[in-house]
Amino acid sequence: MFRDALLVAGKDLRIELRSRVTTNQVAPFAVLVLVLFAFALDPDRGVLGRATAGLFWVAVLLCTLLAVQRTFALETADGTRDALRLSGLDPAGVFLGKLGAVVAQLLALEVVLGVGVAVLYDTSVDTDGASPVAVVAALVVTALVATLGLGAAGTLYGVLAAGLRVRETLLPLLLLPVTAPVLIGATRAFESALDGVPSESWPWTGLLAVFALVYTAVGLAAFGPLLEES
Amino acid sequence: METVVHLRAAVTLLGRFPALAGVDLDVARGEVVLVAGPNGAGKSTLLRVCAGLLPVSAGEAVVLGHDLRVDPRGVRRRVGLLGHATGLYDDLSVVDNVRFWARANGARPADVDEALETMGLAGRLAKVEVHRLSAGQRRRTALAVLLARRPELWLLDEPHAGLDAAGRDLLDGLVTRAALAGATVLLSSHELDRAAALAHRRVTIAGGRIAARSDGDAAPPAAPTRAAVEVPGVP
Q1: Which residue in B78, B96, B103 has the most chain A C-beta atoms within 10 A of its own C-beta, making it the best mutation to test that interface?
Q2: How far out from the chain centre does Cα A227 lie?
């Protein structure tokens, strides 16, 4: 399973490196979303500062939709889905591989978005009374766990929608509601860390970890049947 | 002789439409069988059923010893399907595509090199991204993927489409040599004369049923009727 996962993740990332869809289209889209938020909330820059965490994760969520649609567009073009079914690849390995590739792309996008909110929203970290290391650790772990959850849910619903003719419009309808807990948990965790109280972010990070584990487990079990049936 | 494909009153529904409406067919190891018939007759459906990609709703369907009604996935690793689509990733190079699918099927690296060499894709062309290839070169790449898998059952749906004269001769040679080596081949084609020259026998499908058989299911000849064609890169 892990060999197959590495093979699929390597293939997906190699395709992204060659096609540069993530760097040339999704990353500019993510920055554009941040700029539009800034335009919309410009009259009161205080709102931008207070809403930084939420706006960051809304932008990540929108990027997740694009990344998931892209990764499954690869598997619907020119019979690749049938080729995947005919191959000896373990469906659970395919799930893990596609999850790994999506997570890697989202983490890279989050770095871009992080720089974006720091520059555009003038976001700063209030470290009064808190260790900077603890703040950074809370932000990094939250980002990792939340991204894993988004990737797992996205990969699961992505394969569900991939075989349908209405996949482009169906995926957001399926994915956005179920990822609401990630949006809430990651936003609260980021807010606590940015406010200089990283200890308050860990319960939210725990919630995110449960979400990620549940969707990863369901994805491992259900990806094969969904690949066959959808 | 070992039966590789055994279908008895096999029915496949696409929605409520019976794409196969009771097919009886037996194909022995090493046989090359041409599946002829008009558009929409069920040729592609028959090949996809044999690949384990479409479900059998009723009847018997056993391919390479796997009961397709119980274990359709069991047969997939052992067949090679070349359909209308190529199953290639546009943004990967020729060699990356062949290498990925070969690894996915447990093939050796040497099989990749040999397949590329055989299909005339070695060298500079191997590094070209698939979306830059002509239709014929894409077809050759798909054939290289199939070759690297070394399938026991070749399922070729309009395999000559898109190939130039040299490519068609190459394909004919590959089919002939595969059959001589013990592989079984089911191919559908509208180029009946060319395909018939490759095949031991012909079945004609119409309305999802076998409408005619060229030889009444007689025992296949010991070797393909067309002489083996020399294929570069294949010993």
Answers
A1: B103
A2: 21
Residue type, B19: A
Q: In residues, how long is chain A? A: 230
Q: How many CB atoms lie within 10 A of CB A172?
A: 16
Which residues 6+ apart lie within 8 Å of A7 measured at CB?
A89, A93, A97, B100, B103, B104
Sequence letter at residue A159: V
Domains assigned to chain B: 1-78+151-235 (3.40.50.300)
Ordered by start, the domain boundaries in chain A are 2-229
Looking at this predicted complex, what is its ipTM? 0.81
- Cβ-proximal residues to A65 (8 Å cutoff; 6+ apart), any chain: A154, A171, A172, A175, A176
Among B79, B88, B103, the residue with its CB nearest the CB of A78 is B88
Q: Which residue has the tokens 């179920």?
A: A178
Phi, psi (deg, nearest 5) at residue A229: -90, -35
> Could you tell me the two tokens for B210?
């076998």
> pLDDT tens, position by position, for chain B (235 residues)?
788 889 888 788 888 888 888 888 899 898 999 998 888 888 899 999 999 998 888 888 899 999 988 888 889 988 999 988 888 999 999 999 999 999 898 888 888 888 898 888 888 888 999 999 988 889 999 999 999 988 999 999 988 888 888 888 888 888 888 888 888 999 998 788 888 888 889 898 888 888 788 864 444 444 444 444 444 444 4
Q: Is A166 on the interface with B (CB under 8 A)?
A: no
Q: Which residues of B touch A94 (CB under 8 A)?
A: none
| Entry pTM | 0.86
Asked if B101's CB is within 8 angstroms of A82's CB, the reply is no
C-beta separation of A95 from A219 below 8 A: yes
Alpha-helix runs per DSSP H in chain A: 2-19, 21, 27-41, 45-50, 52-73, 80-86, 91-120, 132-162, 167-178, 180-194, 202-229
Q: Residue type at A136?
A: V
- Among residues A7, A3, A14, A98, the alpha carbon closest in space to that of B100 is found at A7
Whether residue A7 and residue B103 make contact (CB cut-off 8 A), yes or no, is yes
Q: Is the pLDDT of residue A23 over 90?
A: no
